[in-house]
From TrEMBL:
Family statement: Belongs to the CWC25 family.
One matching Pfam family: Cir_N
Keywords: Coiled coil, mRNA processing, mRNA splicing, Nucleus, Spliceosome
Principal subcellular localisation of the protein: nucleus
Species whose genome carries this gene: Equus asinus (Donkey)
Subcellular location: Nucleus
The protein's name in its UniProt record: CWC25 spliceosome associated protein homolog
Coiled-coil regions listed: 23-66
GO biological process: mRNA splicing, via spliceosome
Domain CBF1-interacting co-repressor CIR N-terminal: 11-47
Gene Ontology CC annotations of this record: U2-type spliceosomal complex
Amino acid sequence: MGGGDLNLKKSWHPQTLRNVEKVWKAEQKHEAERKKIEELQRELREERAREEMQRYAEDVGAVKKKEEKLDWMYQGPGGMVNRDEYLLGRPIDKYVFEKMEEKEAGCSSETGLLPGSIFAPSGANSLLDMASKIREDPLFIIRKLSSEELERKRQEMMENAKWREEERLNILKRHAKDDEREQRLEKLDSRDGKFIHRMKLESASTSSLEDRVKRNIYSLQRTSVALEKNFMKR
């Protein structure tokens, strides 16, 4: 009776349908994760390329600089006043009006018309102040956090994909070792069986009838006639 390969009935064998299905599902999942990572990388590259092109176009003056929606938060009082609206009768605070006149006159209450006032370090302070305000800008913070979160997720996906690939290779190696060990055991069993069969044949060909009967003494039926003749009596 041939039952086929008995190893296929063992749960650890790599060629069983269940294990083949597990390996196939793991490979499909790994491939999907790899494609997702490539898609995220492609989107990041495209976004960076668009930002660089926009920045270059703004630098050369090809397009107007894009104004952020929250720029009005950092404008001074004079930046929010329109003279046309004032002429049409819109009420304007006196302080704002004075600041507008000082700006048009080219002097301020702090520097006046002192020589060298145009070289005052107010520009550096204003740049530092603007940089500080940009860092505190809610929109800037949101974009920064979103970029960091996207990068963190990308790193996690890459690490997860790497771990799954290593785990898959370890499983395949373990199945290969088990298969090799099973093959060695089968060879040993086959060799021992052939050796015992050969010894039986040699013993049957070289021994006499009496020797074979003595070896099978327990399988013979001891009759009363045989006992009277002392046949093979112990």
